[in-house]
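agent> Task received from the user: take the single chain below, predict its 3D structure, and emit structure tokens. No templates, no multimer pairing.
agent> Plan: (1) validate residues, (2) run structure prediction, (3) serialize to tokens, (4) report one or two observations.
agent> Step 1 OK, no nonstandard residues flagged.
tool_call: predict_structure(input=
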Amino acid sequence: MKYSIIDTHCHLDIIQEQGQSIAESLEKSQSVGVKKILQIGIDMESSLRAKEIAHTDFSSNMKDGIAPSINYSIGCHPTETHEFPKAEEIMSLIEENLQDPKLSAIGEIGIDLYHTADSKKYQIETLEKFLDLAERTKLPVVIHSRDGFEETYEVLKRWKTRAFGVIHCFTYDYNAGKKFVDLGYYVSFSGVLAFKNATDIHDAAKKLPMDAVLIETDAPFLAPPPHRGKRNDSSNMPFILERMFSLREESNESIEKSLYENSEKFLNRKAYYDVRS
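)
tool_result: status=success, residues=277
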């Protein structure tokens, strides 16, 4: 079955580095109903590349002449600590592109205490700089938070009502998710949602308010079953969507429609609670 889906977090540049062209990724994704993709920046180089990808017309490479549209973000990933001295340059790049309708968000940014716990203070300071920018520019943020719920929550709480965005690749439990939603954040579920043993994540996906939920691949990482352990791309979005169907009480049609509309709002720089048309 072909759905209407938006992948709200993808790294087409890294997929390309791993051997699959962007055109092939888009062709595969378009064939299953992926309409739009958010290409993520993690440092200066990848952010510039993200903009380039978003502004490239891939339609001539598609069999039916229609490629998924691509938006992009500009960010400074918390594990890319070598990029932190360039934070001011990255922030300037964001401000230079504010009028670009394809620029959807700041990120990914955040706190990662799994890979780089020794730089926690540095990570928090850098995150705070970008949240200040988000407040000034009214752009949403894409938050990476791994093994650092308390630290992430405490920082974001200080910007409540001043900044908003999405907790991408959510890996905490329902209570954590509800706290983020109460701060005004979308919660986005990746292929991990389809892992059998991800019971806390299943519970969160089941209970969080539908208007604050997004889905993503985080490709090329975290491919859902039956492709777990292989290179991921946006063509695997249906496996994530169908796992959401199995967890929620709403009709499949309603879930698909809500996720699409939520994703559209986010790509258009709007919070889930923004009722403007």
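agent> Step 4: summary for the user.
The beta strands are 5-10, 34-39, 69-74, 103-112, 141-146, 165-167, 185-189, 213-215.
agent> Done.
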